[in-house]
Each structure stands twice: as C-alpha cells, then as structure tokens.
Amino acid sequence: MTNPFSAIYQDTINLQKEIAKKVVTNDNILLKKQINYVCGVDVSYKKDIAYCSAVIIKKRSLKSIQYVNTIYPVTQPYIPGLFMLREAAPIIDTLKLLKSPYDALLIDGHGQLHPRRCGLACYLGVVLDKPTIGIAKSLLCGVQRKDQFIEIEGEILGFRITKESKQGSLCEHWAQIEFTISNST
Asked: In this predicted model, what pLDDT tens digit does every residue of 77-114 receive, in sequence order?
C-alpha cells in the first residue's frame, strides 16, 4: 500500500532543495543599522491543536510593540527534516495579523543546519523576504567544532549557544545562518 503523503513529502523535499539555492548569507552593510524591530514567533501543540504566537519588540529597549495569538488545527504530523509542513502555514497566517512592521524574524527552528540546508527558518525567510535567524533546540546535522561553530562539509553554518538554567542544568541551542544574515551579525 502506498503512503498517500509520500508525494507531498517528496514535493516538499524538492521545494527545500530549490529554496536552499535562494538563501542569501552575505551581510548587507546597512543591515545592523536597519534592524530596529524584531519579531519572534513560535508554535506549541496540545493534542491536535497548534497555538501560534508572534511578538514584535523594539531591539534596543526590548519593549513589546505588538503581539498576536492564533489557534489552528494540526494538519501534518511531526517529521524531522520536514518541519515546515507542520509549522509554516500557522506561522505565516499569524504574521499576517501583525499591523506593526518588523525588520527581522526569529524562528524556533532550523535554518541551514538541515540535511537539505533549508529548514523552517530558511523557508520562511525566503518566502517572507525577511532577514531571519533560526534557533533550534537540537542539532539535526553538522559537526560542532571546539570553538562552538557548527559546520557541514567544511562550511560554517551555525553556532552552539549554551546557558545554565535556573535549575543548574545546561541548556543548548543552535543559532543558524538564514536569509540575509550571517553568523558575524
């Protein structure tokens, strides 16, 4: 019996490969001065419901400018490497509700530290035409160097960030190169 989703999965894999070619990782000289407002967005789940929230903050003061929350039915299962199938639509629809402009986007998800170099953050950055930073809670692929940079095939594509939690345990996250922002930014 053929999996009815196999064609969708293969189409998504092909789309990821095409979008990966469009990811820009060179810094724009004026980019640092242009980022005044940052939007963070994430999706959480309870049973078959996706809860998506987005908040825009002023970079310098961290003052909250606007936030929106939405609720969506879950339409796709969680599949490592195909996270964009599950989260892209709720995120894009939630971002459309924002009235205030933002200059950069923070995504809870992979960017180029992805088997096809196109995780959720790259996909959203290209589709939305916004500078995007992906922050992931697990390392999907790549090799961590002693200096904490992560590379794939000799190319630096991310950085390991560690922080001690209030309970004393070590929290790890991986910051990744995405659309128009490099690790030097």
From this structure: 888 888 888 899 999 999 999 999 999 999 998 888 88
Cα 20 to the chain's mean position, in Å? 13
Gap between the Cα atoms of 31 and 131, Å rounded? 9
Q: How far apart are CA 138 and CA 154, in angstroms?
A: 20
Tell me whether residue 57 is in a domain: yes
Candidates 74, 107, 84, 112; CA nearest to 12 is 84
HEC string for 31-56: HHHHCCEEEEEEEEEECCEEEEEEEE
Task: Report the CATH number at residue 171.
Answer: 3.30.2170.10
> Could you tell me the residue range of the domain that residue 166 belongs to?
6-176
Burial degree of 149 (CB within 10 A; 0-12, 13-18, 19+): middle
DSSP output for 1-20: ---TTHHHHHHHHHHHHHHH
Q: State how many domains the chain has.
A: 1
Mean pLDDT, to the nearest integer, of 155-173? 80
pTM: 0.83
